[in-house]
Amino acid sequence: MTITIRSIVAAFSLTACLAHAADKNKAWTDPETARKEDPDFSIQGEYGADKKGARLGVQVVALGDGKFDAYFLEGGLPGLGWTREKKRVRATGSTKENGVLFESENDEIEAIIRDGRIRGRISGERFELPRIERQSPTVGMEPPESAVVLFDGSSADGWKNGKVVDGLLAATGTTSEKTFKDCKIQIEFRTPYKPHSRGQGRGNSGVYYGGRWETQVLDSFGLDGRMNETGGIYSIAAPRLNMCLPPLTWQTYDVRITAAKFDDNGKRTAWPRITVKLNGVIVHEDQELNKTHTTAAPVRGEIKDEGGPVFLQNHGNPVFFRNIWVLPR
Q: Distance between CA atoms of 163 and 150, rounded to whole angstroms?
C-alpha cells in the first residue's frame, strides 16, 4: 500500500472534522465543568433584579462559539414582573475583545456584557443590570410524613428500567412501580448545557402523570414558552409564561392531579385536571387533560377508574431528576 501526502492530509482533515462535529454535540451535565471548559456558560443566564418592581430584565441564551441571543423583558424577569402582554425584544450578540456586544435589528437596543454585568441603552434609555442566579423556592423541599418517596438519591428501587448516576435518576424511560390517582407530585429536574443544539434537541425529556399526560422538560430558557417547551403540557396547552431557568440549574415541577370522574356504571363523566407550578410559579391552573394520552405515554387506551404511574421520558438527552415524592389525596 502506498501512502501519499494527499492521503495523509485527507485522513487528518476527516479526523479534524469528526472531532469538531463531536465537540458541537457536546452536552455538559455538571455546572463546574461547564464553567471551566466553556466561557460562554458564565455569560448566559439572567440579568436583572431578583424581586418585583424592576423596569427591565434580560435573559441571555448561549448558542455556541461566542454567539448569543438576548431577550429584553419589560417589567423584569418572568415571575417577577414580565408577562406575555408586556414587551419582549430580541437582540443578537457575539464575543469581541472587550466583551459580548448586542444589537437589535431596528437599533432599539445596544448593549455589552462585561465583568458580570450588562450595560447599554434600550429605546434611548440607559440601563445596567447584574447577572443573577435564581433558584426555585421549592428546591430541596422535604416530603411530608404521609408522602410516598419515589426517589431520594439512594437507589432506583421502585422504578422499572431505573438508573442512578452520581445519586441522580437518569431519564431512561423509567416508570414508577407505584401508581396514584388524586395526588400532589414534587419533582426536581436538570437539563444539560448544549449550546450548539437547537429546539427539541436541547435537553429533551418529559414527566408523565398517570403514565399518560406530559409536562415537557427541555432547555427552553429564554424562548417563547410553547406547549412543547418546559412548562407546556405537550399537545394540550402552553404555559402562562416561560418560567424555565438556565441549563444546569435545578428546577421544580409541583403538580396537583385530580383524577377523572366516573359514574356508578364505570362511564367517565369528567376528564382529569392538573395544576402545575414551574419553579414556584403557576403556569397551568385546573387545566383539563382532554386526551387519553400525549406523545410517548406508556399508558394508553380508554381511561379507567384506577391510578397510574410517574414516567420519565428518554429522548436521548442526559437529563437528570432528584427529590421525587407523591402526596396522595
A: 13
Q: Can you tell me whether residue 20 is helix, strand or coil?
A: helix
Q: Specify the 3-state DSSP secondary structure of 187.
A: strand
Q: Which parts of the chain fold into alpha helices (H)?
A: 5-24, 31-37
Single pTM value for the model = 0.91
Q: Among 22, 319, 21, which residue's Cα sits nearest to residue 193?
A: 319
All cell numbers assigned to 272: 382529569
Neighbour count for residue 144 (Cβ, 10 Å): 10
- Could you give the CA distance from residue 104 to residue 97 in angstroms, rounded to a whole number? 20
Taken in order of first residue, the domains within the chain and their CATH numbers are 32-132 (2.40.128), 148-328 (2.60.120.560)
Reading the block at residue 236, the C-alpha cell is 394540550
C-alpha to C-alpha distance for 177 and 172, rounded to whole angstroms: 15
Residue 193 CB contacts under 8 Å (≥ 6 apart), including other chains: 27, 28, 29, 31, 34, 38, 41, 62, 219, 247, 248
| Tens-place pLDDT, residues 155-206 | 999 999 999 999 999 999 999 999 999 999 999 999 999 999 988 889 999 9
Question: For 128-165, what is each residue's pLDDT tens digit?
Answer: 999 999 999 999 999 999 999 999 999 999 999 999 99
Neighbours of 66 (CB within 10 A): 16
